[in-house]
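#random but structural
TW: two for the price of one
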Amino acid sequence: MNNQNNITELRGLKDKSIDIEHAKAISDTAQVIINSAKIKADYAKHNKKKTTHLCTTKS
């Protein structure tokens, strides 16, 4: 997900190039990412770690 593209798309609300539902989906997705980062930071803080491996994926 490219933040610059999302900002450009949200500006599309002004010129009516995107609809409200699309903007809300972008906003909701961004909020999930922010909340996930907060959880990871809290986990690291409470477990005295500088990094976490909560979001690792297996290939």
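TW: number two ↓
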Amino acid sequence: MVFIAKFIAGVRILIPYLAGINRMKPWLFFVFNTIAAVVWSGVFIIAGRYIGEFVTKYWPFFKHHVVLLILVVVVLIVLFVWFRIWEHRVARVPNTMTPTRPAPLHRN
């Protein structure tokens, strides 16, 4: 639990409290938390290096086309939201083609 939670933003902050509430032994928490911190740091340092190389390599393209890239991202987000709203509305529309029984005209 401690090891996996280190990689989830927001949950990482709660883990010491949850470990204490569940009466995890302090030395065991220390071991798992230390191992998770070392792995977490390594993963993000390596990812940062490769992402940095990618950005450095393609920065001239991004610099000249940043407005177009932002526009494409915004359009994709708007289309996604519109599709989800449309999908939700279609699911809520009642089927008007099925015949219904007329209501009685008076009570007995």
